Amino acid sequence: MTFGFAPPATASLTTATGGASRHGRLLEPSEWTAAGVPLLRNPREVVSGLHSRHSPEPSTAVIAVLGPEERLVASASFVQRSASADGWEYRNALLSRLRRVIPHDLRRRTPVRTAVLMYCRDGDERWTEEDGAWMWGLRDACTLHGLRCGAYITLTRGGWQVLGEGRGGRHPSSESRPERLGSMTEIAPLPLSTAGGAVEPLRRAAAR
What we know:
Blueprint lengths: L19 E2 L2 E2 L3 H6 L8 H12 L5 E7 L5 E8 L7 H15 L12 E7 L8 H17 L2 E9 L2 E4 L4 E3 L21 E3 L5 E3 L7
Parallel strand pairs: 5-6
Antiparallel strand pairs: 1-2, 3-4, 3-5, 6-7, 7-8, 9-10
């Protein structure tokens, strides 16, 4: 599958600010590829599992944390509508959901869990500045939560695509009906401390 580019709607990107444009903080595909984001071993299974759990519609972001062997630890979905693509705003939205569903790993020297982001949007599979802003937001949110930054996946009418890898498929798509959960397994819920010191089971949130 060809990794294409959609024409920018505004001024060209500048390199002096680390890949920022007038829209805000974002990453270009070349910067994302150079970052060495780990490849998903079975992207179709990950995408299908998240689609079945969250039934995303356009403008819905699904953030998921994967443990060893790509086992799902936690996930959350939310609708994010913004007048302009701003990685700072997206970073804050992602970090807020991560904090709700899973404790941080900032005390670890090396991240052991990986966060991946699937964004359901209109348009085709080509990279857009909005995608670049989500990439920036995902990378920064992972750093602030002690996670390894994983794949960024788009879900459109034409299907799904892991940007920067050239891997994708026609099903599921933004118009697909959710299927029954398959073999994408999950590890046991982790305890999440509350403000009062009590411990409650980790909830897999679907914030709407």
